[in-house]
TrEMBL record:
Organism (species): Subsaximicrobium wynnwilliamsii
Molecular function GO labels: chorismate mutase activity; transferase activity
Domain Chorismate mutase, first and last residues per copy: 267-358
EC number: 5.4.99.5
Cited Pfam families: CM_2, DAHP_synth_1
Name of the featured protein: chorismate mutase
Superkingdom of source: Bacteria
Gene3D superfamilies given in the database record: Aldolase class I, Chorismate mutase
First-level EC class: isomerase
Keywords from the UniProt entry: Transferase
Amino acid sequence: MENKKELRGWLDNFGLNHPLVIAGPCSAETEAQVLKIAHQLKESDATVLRAGIWKPRTRPGNFEGVGALGLKWLQKAKQETGMLTTTEVANANHVDLALKHDVDILWIGARTTVSPFIVQDIADALKGTDKIVLIKNPVNPDLALWLGAVERFHTADVKNLGVIHRGFSTYEKTRYRNNPEWQIAVDLQNRFPDLPLILDPSHIAGRRDIIFDLCQTALDLNYDGMMVETHYDPDNAWSDAAQQITPETLIQITKDLKIKKETAEGADYNNKLNTLRTQIDVVDHQLIDMMGKRMKVADEIGALKKTKNVAVLQTKRWNEILGKMILQGEEKNLSEEFILRVFKAIHQESINHQEKVING
């Protein structure tokens, strides 16, 4: 897909002086619930009301949405508040029903994005539509698969496109429900800077206490907006209760978020510099995470050496590692001096960890 500036047109047409805010409950539960949340959000910066109508759950037996009935509730909320509406569609039938109920924005879920067959069916159902279509990243960290889904809609003459970054599944336990893997979204943004990029902090976080920090990072990386799950009684929500916030909290978050403002002089430079610095922050966090994992392995090696009464320092192994790292560093344009300093420090920390295990 070529870099198409017209992809950004729908967002610019909103004429907002702040990032786009999409908000609403994880699931539409009752008509009264949808309407109450919509009227509360009308007093916020939210432009679009979101609600899950069909809820694809990881395991059967959980609440899977109210179905098409909920579309009437969204339609009524739109009439009463003037907010735009959006919901997830997972097949051509969903598309047909959403269009009949005048849903303004359709989003493609992470589980759908992984299947080119399903994506193509939905793209065909939307062929030539002027509706806005937002594509969430696939559950697995695969940029090509994400962009492939966007291309299918673009090829189907769907012009109003955007993407939603909702994080990626991982087997390892982390502080996130879905690892953000910011670099993947940054790579997408660098390749297609005119493709609107929205953050879904709710599904990345899995808990409400880090929603703000995720949104701030996204704004520092020049994201165009956020989709935040909101509920007037989040603790008693029928799905994903832990990651939803109240409309009042959303209002406070949008007040506290720092948005880079242009100055009269050097605006382009400052914005680019801040974005690059945030990218460095993301990589630095990844480095710390990887170092932590490396030292956990060192602890295991120390425990194994203790059982066999083996010395901590293995000179031959250390020289082999150092030689390989110097060669790999050269391929990445890193000097031998730098590699030596970094890996000597890592090696010393590894020795400290092993000695602590052995002597402990």
